[in-house]
Amino acid sequence: MIRTGVVGAMGKMGQEVVKTVISDPELELVCAVDKFETGKNVYGNVNIESDILKAIEINKPDVVVDFTQPSVIFENAKIYLKNKVKTVIGTTGLSSDQISELKELSKKYDTGCLIAPNFALGAVLMMMFSKMAAKYFNNAEIIELHHNQKKDAPSGTAIKTAEMMAEINPDFKQKNAPETEIIKGARGAEYNNTKNEGKINIHSIRMPGFIASQEVIFGANGQTLTIRHDTQNRECFMSGVTLGIKHVYKNNDFIFGLENIL
Length: 262
Description:
The protein is α/β, with parallel strands linked by helices and 262 residues long.
């Protein structure tokens, strides 16, 4: 049995993770951490705890799954790795510098860490297909659509998609006319990697009724190609979360992106 802890256990994603852990015969829920409902017996014999470090010391999880907030995820992740607790991170909002630092900590403490902007297998395939298409199109833009309670923009999935596309093509604005924004931000945000490659506009929509959707639109003379993924419920992420837990339990590598373990 893989002793599993869930941080952000009372959030919408956290609750789905807890249900998934409880229902999987290979996993055992040993701790649940959240700032809400602290002390309450919400999940069988596991009480909600508020102190991450204390929960780790007392319950000794093999793997911690974190679905919290962008404002706290970096500090949380450092706690896990420094205490040699293998980690699956679904919280988005980490900067490239923070991801690099967590990669170094993972190596230093020989502790597995998986950071995945998206755990839906269809969304991961959408990113992979977009990378494939990037070889054949010189113009592309990304539109991501989420519920209006999502705090970070653009989404981690959109950034990861742009990053993968930029590996193939350094400029997705070829032959575009010079632009003047009458209203600042009308053209979205431009993604460029550290080498100033990519040049992909990303548009973020926040609206009730969405969970998570993304489309990547490619254009060329006389044709467009749209690759789109839509999330209908949060259960669709759970197969990827389970896959991540079982991977980091067996391995001590650092991974950014679920596509690297499919």
